[in-house]
Amino acid sequence: GPSRDSRPPRRSAEQIRLDRWHDSILDHFYALPPAIDSALGQPVTLPVLTIMPGKRTVPPLAVAVIGTGLVGSELVSQLLSLPSPSPFVLVSLVSLNRALFSATGLSVTKDTWKNVLEASSAKPDLRALVEQLAPLERVVVVDNTASQEVAELYPEFLKRGMHVATPNKKAFSGSQALYDAILKASKESGA
Questions:
Q1: DSSP structure string for 48-102
Q2: Does the pLDDT of residue 50 top 50, yes or no?
Q3: Other C-beta atoms within 10 Å of 182: how many?
Q4: Distance between CA 144 and CA 125 in Å, rounded?
Q5: What is the CB-side half-sphere exposure of residue 158 using CA atoms within 13 A?
Q6: Is the peptide bond before 85 cis (omega within 30 degrees of 0)?
Q7: What is the reported pTM?
Q8: Please, are residues 101 and 122 in contact by the beta-carbon 8 Å criterion?
Q9: Handedness of CA 78, 106, 113, 151 (dihedral sign)
Q10: pLDDT surpassing 60 at residue 7
Q11: What CA–CA distance (Å, rounded) separates 46 from 190?
């Protein structure tokens, strides 16, 4: 049989859990283009970035998180816990009273992001955030709020080709005009 030295090193339970989570994210990600193709009635081509040798490839996504309560905090912690290189770049955090933005990615970790956000002197300005994110490629705005104000900006994000992911029901249970604007912006931009 193989000698003890030729066996791969044992992986910790945490590494196994992270590998499974990483593969789950990739499986969900690869399900998106066919679903988008079907919804838009046209093919979607995504540029790619190699994540790990021998692993699948995914495009890097610039992530802007609005709302850092319970759901938002968990999302940020999970994003910042991914092994490097990550398919995601956290470019913005917006809470009720503070904001952070860096087009190249925030210099924060899972353990420091809350303190860095709290120390920020920048106040939330969602219209300014739309403009800050506009020049970036492959952006997803994650709205973890229950804010009508944020929901009303979805058409602006979408018009500029940014994707919006949210548990916020305001945009889809409010006015018909907002709902129609969201659908129109999404269809026109492909986001």
A1: -EE-STTS-EE--EEEEEE--SHHHHHHHHHHHHSPSSPSEEEEEEE-SS-EEE-
A2: no
A3: 19
A4: 16
A5: 22
A6: yes
A7: 0.68
A8: yes
A9: negative
A10: no
A11: 12
Tokens of 52: 């790990």
Tokens representing 119 are 């120390």
In the chain, DSSP assigns E strands to: 49-50, 57-58, 61-66, 88-94, 99-101, 139-143, 163-165
CA–CA distances in Å: residue 146 to residues 45, 57, 180: 32, 34, 19
Name the residue with tokens 């026109």.
188
Write out pLDDT tens, residues 80-104: 998 888 889 999 999 999 999 999 9
| Cα 151 from Cα 172, distance rounded (Å) | 9
- Do 58 and 89 contact (CB within 8 A), yes or no? no
Distance CA 72, CA 94 (A): 10
Quick check: 170 and 179 in contact, CB under 8 A?
no
What is the structure's pLDDT at 121? Answer: 96
Q: Is 100 left (phi over 0), alpha (psi -120 to 50) or beta?
A: beta
